[in-house]
Amino acid sequence: MSPTHSLPLLLLISLLLISTSTSSSDSDRVSGLQSLQSQSKTGIIHLDDHSVSRYLTSTKTPRPYYLLIFFDATELHDKSD
Fold first, then answer.
1. Between the N and C ends of the chain, which has fewer C-beta atoms within 10 Å?
2. Are 26 and 64 within 8 A, CB to CB?
3. pLDDT for position 15
4. How deeply is 30 buried, as exposed, middle or buried, from its count of CB atoms within 10 A (0-12, 13-18, 19+)?
């Protein structure tokens, strides 16, 4: 097998090993995030104190998922500035 063909195979095997090595609590968290995203019309997940704790602060790094967090102030929604 040529080196150019073995690299994608090596990457695929690495991804499979990483995905199978995640703990059940990690897969539960990923499933929970996917469920929350599918329930949202826009795909955006709104976090409360409990979900911030579950998905952000109580997990070991590196996490099996990425978070992009935007903070919003409700009292600024009516301001056009």
1. C
2. yes
3. 54
4. middle
Neighbours of 22 (CB within 10 A): 13
- Report which of 28, 18, 31, 1 is spatially closest to residue 62, judged by C-alpha positions: 18
CA–CA gap between residue 70 and residue 4 (Å, rounded): 40
| Domain residue ranges of the chain, discontinuous segments joined by + | 3-76
Average pLDDT, the chain: 76
- Residue 26: the pLDDT is 84
Of 45, 40, 39, 49, which is closest to residue 65 (Cα–Cα)?
45
Positive or negative, the CA dihedral 31, 36, 39, 43 is negative
